[in-house]
Amino acid sequence: MLTPDQARDRALDLVERARRAGADAADAVYGASSSEGIQVRLGKLEDVERSEGEHIALRVFAGTRSASIGSSDLSPAALDELAERAIAMARLAPEDAYAGLAPQDMLARGPWPELDLVDPAEPSPSALRAMAEEAEDAARSVPGVTNSDGATASAGVGVFALATSHGFSGAYGSTNHSVSASVVGGDGAGKQRDNAWRTAHHGEDLPSPAEIGRLAGTRTVAKLDSGRMKSGPMPVVFDPRVSSSLVGHLLGAISGSAIARRSSFLLDRLGEQIFAPGTLIVDNPHAPRGLRARPFDGEGLATTPRNLVEDGRLTGWLLDSASARQLGLAPTGHATRNGGGAPGVSVGNVHLAPGALSPAQLIADIAHGVYVTELIGQGVNGVTGDYSRGAAGFRIVGGELAGPVAEFTIAGNLLAMFARMTAADDLEWYRAINVPTVRVDGMTVAGD
């Protein structure tokens, strides 16, 4: 595995090759990773997986025409050929007035913020196996668990580098550790399955494998003997396992590409009251050890913490350089690169600020409602905001959780849902998008 400095030099070298081959401008992205995972099932070793790889991608410009190409062959001859092919492709591509590198005067300059993304401790294969066995043993020990899909423990390391022809170069490394377990409860047609998992940059930030396993088992058994919901309008409460998806829909709707295409239900609502007053949604790419922490974006611009929603009002869009040019605005440092191709848009570590009520207090006045722990399908229209998804969870009766329910649909419109959203105080900080328990009044449930 290359060091970040070596990775940066690889990207710089490819950019220089592209300039020598005739590119007007270019950028290169280098990525490498290695990982090892151990899976056990029913107490026996099920799978051992080891992967290593590296990839470099080049984007070149010939005037306002551009092309991207990538390769896992990093030999000098292959890189020269890569540059020549990319330029030939660019000269045949259609013109795009909005394409181009990021504004040079906005490029990030070091030193980068200290994000603490690298754990020097590397678990051995035997340690990973012991973690997986501990998680599965704990899950299977929960009364009512009858079978196992297995448990997995893994660890890996990666490096990312970006270089441009107009003066930016940077790289950073990261590590990852994860543990998961999935088990089955019950018998016959009444079987249920559920899981638990955690991932972190540092192994010490994970709960114990036994805790993860017990959670998987408890969740599974809690779903046994699921009933059906009656149809009608009612409050819907989203468990933190699924509440982050609501903020995810917001992020998709404020991406620059959606706004530039005029295909967002939040179009023309900049600065408007979208959520209840007091609602705060924060994007912090500099959160130490955050899953999406990064010192610079996919175009070489500085990343900065920002309130996406402040006092319930939408503060702005998420812009890469192309969508910013199309909208006549400045890019916001939210560009991302997934291998080759043009940049997309992504956020850092996002959270919805917690409210004042505990989850129990949040549901205390609900005579009849539903607590959702699982969402199924992709029934969300990003243009209109119409929302309809299959779900499973628990009844709320008389202000308390009652029996499990499944095979029902929850529906509404995201604009109305955002306006009626109330957050509990149980925010946790281990996901990429961290959202507490959330209540949304006035949704429609379709069951029996």
UniProtKB/TrEMBL annotation:
GO biological process: proteolysis
Residue stretches making up the Metalloprotease TldD/E C-terminal domain: 231-447
Pfam families registered for this protein in UniProt: PmbA_TldD_1st, PmbA_TldD_2nd, PmbA_TldD_3rd
Highest taxon of the lineage: Bacteria
Metalloprotease TldD/E central domain mapped to chain residues: 119-224
Residue span, Metalloprotease TldD/E N-terminal domain: 26-90
InterPro entries recorded: Metalloprtase-TldD/E_C, Metalloprtase-TldD/E_cen_dom, Metalloprtase-TldD/E_N, PmbA, TldD/PmbA_N, TldD/PmbA_sf
Residues in the signal sequence: none
Any single GO CC term annotated in Swiss-Prot or TrEMBL for this entry: cytosol
Gene Ontology MF terms in the entry: metallopeptidase activity
Family: Belongs to the peptidase U62 family.
Protein name (Swiss-Prot/TrEMBL): TldD/PmbA family protein
Annotated source species: Novosphingobium silvae
